[in-house]
Design goal:
With about 70 residues, the chain is of the alpha+beta class. The chain is built from two helices and three strands, in the order αβββα. The protein has one domain: Metal Transport, Frataxin, Chain A, CATH 3.30.920.
C-alpha cells in the first residue's frame, strides 16, 4: 500500500516523535526512546519511497517495544 509523506508524518506524530526542520524538504524526527533519528524528504503530497515506509515502521515498532518493557 503506497503511503504519502503526509501519512508517514502523521504516524510519527501519533507515536510521539518530534519534528525538526532540516535542509530543503527534509524533516528530522526524534523520540526520547529511539536512539537514532528518522529523516523524511519530499513534499507532503508525494508518495513515500519504500525505504521511507520501512524506516518509519521500524522506528515505531522499536518505540512500542521499549514502552512495553517499561
Amino acid at each position: 500500500m503506497v503511503k504519502s509523506v503526509r501519512e508517514l508524518k502523521a504516524m510519527l506524530l501519533k507515536a510521539g516523535f518530534s519534528e525538526f526542520s532540516a535542509k530543503g524538504s527534509h524533516t528530522k524526527w526524534l523520540h526520547p526512546l529511539f536512539l537514532g533519528r528518522v529523516i523524511l524528504s519530499g513534499k507532503d503530497s508525494n508518495d513515500a519511497k519504500p525505504y521511507q515506509v520501512r524506516e518509519v515502521m521500524d522506528a515505531i515498532k522499536q518505540i512500542k517495544d521499549k514502552e512495553l518493557e517499561e
